[in-house]
Specification:
Elements: E1 2-6, E2 12-16, E3 19-23, E4 44-46, H1 52-55, H2 58-65, E5 68-72, H3 73-80, E6 86-89, E7 94-97, E8 100-106, E9 123-129, E10 134-137, H4 147-152, E11 157-161, H5 170-180, E12 184-188, H6 200-210, E13 214-215, E14 223-225
Parallel strand pairs: 3-4, 4-5, 5-6, 10-11, 11-12, 12-13
Antiparallel strand pairs: 1-2, 1-14, 2-3, 7-8, 8-9, 9-10
Bound molecules: nickel (II) ion (NI) and manganese (II) ion.
Length: 226
């Protein structure tokens, strides 16, 4: 069983059987989010890169819950020094966990940490759950042609940014959908700030006109089972 809840911006809560994953938990700074930092469940926290709208409340949540943070080795090392448990990976590398097999993917972006420490390379995550569901969380990224490789083996779900300015905008995100060809695509990383405001409904109409991919526009708090 895989259940995905959108927490606003680029944050998701993913439940795989009885394991709770949080992805890019930017919660206290995001007025749209439906969950509280001091109550959200987490066994693992997946962090795509060091920007504060992704690293978010990782330190506080991991400190309270004892969750293991999965990220690149630079971000893991930075968190370890603060007493957080981590599991370091790097781009292209996968690792088996109780909830499935998780690979870190390439992203075309930056990754400084909040204190301007070097945060390594930014990434995304490709998860294959134990029951064979394949989920891709692109993280913050521009369009890149190797999305075709990520989609090649089939994707049940993909979450991709559409906000423009810092990541792909609507035009490139449409091209990304064509490369990834998932069963369902969820747009993210838009409307949180004025600089990433987009007409998500116009985008979903375009995607559905030009591809066979189902667009699911999730409101913060919405849940969906794969
Ligand atoms: Ni970023
Ligand atoms: Mn961002």
């Amino acid at each position: 069983m895989v259940q995905i809840q959108y927490l606003g911006h680029a944050a998701f809560a993913v439940q795989v059987d009885s394991t709770h994953l949080l992805i890019d938990p930017f919660l206290s700074g995001n007025p749209q989010t439906p969950v509280r930092v001091d109550a959200v469940l987490a066994d693992y926290i997946l962090v795509t890169h060091g920007h504060s709208d992704h690293l978010g409340d990782t330190e506080e949540i991991a400190g309270r819950t004892g969750a293991v943070v999965i990220s690149n080795s630079e971000i893991c090392h930075w968190l370890q020094k603060k007493g957080i448990q981590t599991s370091a990976q790097h781009l292209g590398g996968g690792r088996r966990y109780p909830f499935g097999y998780l690979k870190m993917t390439f992203a075309l972006h930056g990754s400084p940490l909040p204190d301007d420490s070097y945060g390594g390379n930014p990434g995304g995550f490709l998860l294959r759950s134990n029951d064979g569901k394949k989920l891709y969380f692109a993280g913050d990224t521009g369009l890149f042609g190797d999305m075709r490789l990520i989609g090649e083996k089939g994707l049940d779900f993909a979450a991709i940014p559409i906000g423009d300015t810092y990541t792909m905008g609507p035009d490139d995100a449409l091209r990304a959908v064509k490369l990834l060809n998932p069963c369902v695509v969820v747009p993210m990383h838009y409307d949180t700030f004025e600089s990433i405001e987009q007409d998500v409904h116009a985008w979903s109409v375009r995607v559905m006109a030009e591809t066979a991919v189902k667009v699911m526009v999730m409101q913060p708090g919405d849940k969906f089972k794969l």
